[in-house]
Amino acid sequence: MRVVIPFDATDPKTRLSAVLDASERQAFAVAMLRDVVAAVRETGHEPRVIATGPVAVDAPTTVDDRPLTPLVDAAIDAGTPLAVVMADLAIATPAAIDRLFSADGDVVLAPGRGGGTNAMVVRTPAFRADFHGTSIRDHRANARSVGATATELDSFRLATDVDEPADLVEVLVHGDGAAARWLVEAGFTVALEGGRPRAVRENRG
């Protein structure tokens, strides 16, 4: 099975701009990508990164600046089965990814929080991707429309993508890879605010 990891190398993680500047967002996004590459490799698969520009990662990389939906559809057309794993799943583990890869179904979907789709396996070339809006609903419908069996994977590790500052606490609490180390080295720690844990940045003077 081919495994692809799409990556925005141009201006990643803009919703983290309240806590990270542009260069920091770039470095943190690459750290998360490295974690995902490492987790996929531990399942016995060699992923290919498909990035919008050059990226410093130790993995086969293709530069392709198309939007995510046509990019994934082109990968489906190039041959199935195909797995797509998003680059910001900083707490994904090999066990969680292996569950995705081994699940039965023509299409296997790993929903993200907020209605997105964080990973998928496609075993039928008739399936089309649609990563706009509440993409998990669209992917369910697209599978039905081509008569494909669809399986959804309930996984905290795969449902947790990192987009907003509030998501950083999940990396600090549950991560143990490059992304978690990057946050700690950048001065982030876990603190209780209003009784809830949050990622806060220490005053670096």
Second CATH tier, the architecture:
Alpha-Beta Complex
At the fourth level of CATH, the homologous superfamily is Spore Coat Polysaccharide Biosynthesis Protein SpsA, Chain A
Distance between the termini: 49 Å
Query: In terms of structural class, how would the helical and strand content be classed?
Result: alpha/beta
Radius of gyration: 17 Å
- The number of helical elements comes to 7
Number of β-strand runs: 9
> What percentage of residues falls in helices of 4 or more residues?
25-40%
Q: Could you say how many structural domains there are in total?
A: 1
Q: What is the percentage of strand-forming residues?
A: 15-25%
**What is the CATH level 1 assignment?**
Alpha Beta
- SSE order in H/E notation? EHEEHEHEEHEHHHEE
**Net shape:** globular
Main beta sheet strand tally, sense and closure: 7 strands, mixed
Your description of this structure?
By secondary structure, the chain is of the alpha/beta class. The strands form two sheets. Strands 3-2-1-4-6-5-7 form a seven-stranded mixed β-sheet, sandwiched between helices. A hairpin with a 2-residue loop joins strand 8 and strand 9. Helix 1 packs across helix 3. It starts with a strand and ends with a strand.
Topology:
Blueprint: E1 2-7, H1 22-41, E2 48-51, E3 61-63, H2 68-77, E4 82-85, H3 94-102, E5 107-111, E6 117-122, H4 135-145, E7 150-152, H5 156-159, H6 168-174, H7 178-185, E8 188-193, E9 196-201
Parallel strand pairs: 1-2, 1-4, 2-3, 5-7
Antiparallel strand pairs: 4-6, 5-6, 8-9
Helix pairs in contact: 1-3, 1-7, 6-7
